[in-house]
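Predict the 3D structure for this chain.
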Amino acid sequence: MKWTDLTHALSPTPWAVVGAAATRLYMPERATRDLDTLIHAASGSQVHAQLNAAGFIRVGDLSIGGATWRSPGGDDIDVIESGEAWVSAALLEAQANIALGKLEVGD
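Done. Predicted structure below.
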């Protein structure tokens, strides 16, 4: 599956791909309709502004914290926001793994 490239929209905010798309390195890819991402809750306002500026439209809230956004190309992106103690360390580790993920992106 091809996904919206979030690199420019979310930079320099630390973020990570999670959920079904993130597991593609470890098992056969699952069919999924949205790209799940994780950010630290403290970055929420900044990320909302960045997504708005990049042409994304907020669709609605997630029950687990965060929101679903629709990309200009029509892809749904779940931006999960968490303030749990482990999130900062996980996002730092994920930044080193971005090149390994090779998430196939479209236009």
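The mean pLDDT is 84.
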